[in-house]
Amino acid sequence: MPYQDLGSRGPVLGISDATQQVNPFLLGTGWDVLFDASQYFSNQTGLEVYHIALDGPVGSSLVVLRDGKTWDYVAQGWKNGWDPQQPLPIPQQNVIQFCWNVAFTSPPYSSSNVQPMVTLWLRQQQ
Known about the structure:
Blueprint: E1 3-13, E2 15-16, H1 17-20, E3 31-35, E4 47-55, E5 62-66, E6 69-74, E7 80-82, E8 88-90, E9 96-100, H2 111-114, E10 117-125
Antiparallel strand pairs: 1-10, 2-3, 3-9, 4-7, 4-8, 4-10, 5-6, 5-9
């Protein structure tokens, strides 16, 4: 089936779960990266995430949620490219959440070695 590449969305920086309260690992204290429908920049149907580039605290793993339900686990949550065998379909109103299980990493602590970052690559069936 042919696809149209819709390009990337992001990078989006992580935020503390203190305001979101969605992180199943570190409720209220962990890192989350959230993508909502406004960030897909498309009113098209049939969108899929076919690649994800992510980075987070060294030694971390993460869970990927679609509307609060577990979609997948990523064992290495830092410096990782994720190419799922099953692309992630995105209905127009879905929220995609990435939640890390490690809040901190090696000192010195700074946003560059702790705060996660995610870029999604989207495509659409033609």
